[in-house]
Amino acid sequence: MSAMANVNVKETIRKYNLRLTKSLGQNFLVDNKVVDGIISASGIGREDIVIEIGPGVGSMTARLAETAGFVIAVEIDRHLIPALQDNLKEYGNVEIINEDVLKLDISDIIERTAARTGLKRVKVAANLPYYITTPIIMKLLEEEPGIGSMIFMVQKEVAARMTAAPGRKDYGALSVAVQYYSNPVRIMDVPPHCFIPQPDVDSSVIRLDVHEEPPVELKDRALFFRVVKAAFGQRRKTLLNALYNAGFFGADKEQIREILSRAGIEENRRGETLTIWQFAELSNVIAETAR
To answer: Mean pLDDT, the chain, as a whole number?
Structure first.
């Protein structure tokens, strides 16, 4: 019998008299088939260190421990730690950390764990609080180059934004940022009844396969993201007006017309129609012009 059968979320909540905190976005996954789907789609194996963010009472952590080489479970809510420790006590390959992942030095933890276990590959699995999904994902993508892939439970509309193609209404700055760092794959949709308590929205499981090298070459990465932000900051405006209003190095509209022309982009296009390669070309031309 799998340890998954031994981690009963409802019984654990009753046993420890847990009061789930709405402010922390606590919605515990209770559908074993969904957990199986996440584990299967993650590609996690015995050669992997897995960082699980938001383990709750350990229902998915137990499955990860059975599948991975080592699991680092990061839980912010100290009230859940006794239940988490109890439910995972039979596993010697799990470390529980009671911290806010946004304040954690993940690189240091990975380095120490790799030295101790001899494992080199790193993956992330998480059922994220929906109010803080984007900051956590972007921290991991921007600051942790050693992570190979990540699989998340997120709000359905956020998954749609991450995977959206140019020209779609969901396509925006988040789409470009996630696709710059990774290849996002939408795995499955998950209805509210699969959680305790039930969230007010539908959810999706998404896997981000992190690029070893970004798909585009940039002269200035910070400038690239400034251009993307400016283009989507005023979605209904043309690129000419959006870039002019953003005030890039004090350029007037004629200079911006010239920049767009050099980048091969019509001035009346909107940011939502540009591919990541066109954003790269545009930012590179701006970088050259600003010298």
So the answer is: 92
Q: Which CATH architecture has domain 3-210?
A: 3-Layer(aba) Sandwich (3.40)
Nearest of 54, 100, 116 to residue 80 by alpha carbon: 54
Q: To which H or E segment does residue 177 belong?
A: helix 173-181
Of the candidates 201, 203, 206, 202, the residue with the CA atom closest to the CA atom of residue 187: 206
Residues forming CATH 3.40.50.150 domain(s) in the chain: 3-210
Q: Which residues share a beta bridge with 147?
A: 122
Distance, in Å, from the CA atom of 186 to the CA atom of 189, rounded to the nearest integer, reads: 8
Q: Note the residue count of the chain.
A: 291
Q: What are phi and psi of 210, to 5 degrees?
A: -70, 135
The residue-averaged pLDDT of 136-163 equals 95
User: What are the start and end residues of each CATH 1.10.8.100 domain in the chain?
Assistant: 221-290
- CB 224: neighbour CB atoms within 10 A? 24
Tell me if 217 sits within 8 A of 279, measured CB to CB: no
Identify residue 122 by its one-letter amino acid code: V
Q: How far apart are CA 134 and CA 270, in angstroms?
A: 24
From 35, 157, 21, select the one nearest 79 (Cα to Cα).
21
Q: d(Cα 169, Cα 223) in Å, to the nearest integer? A: 24
Question: What pLDDT is attached to residue 197?
Answer: 87
Share of the chain above pLDDT 90, in %: 81
269 pLDDT band, cuts 50/70/90, is very high
Return the CATH architecture of domain 221-290: Orthogonal Bundle (1.10)
Gap between the Cα atoms of 176 and 182, Å rounded? 10
The single residue listed with the structure tokens 């938001």 is: 54
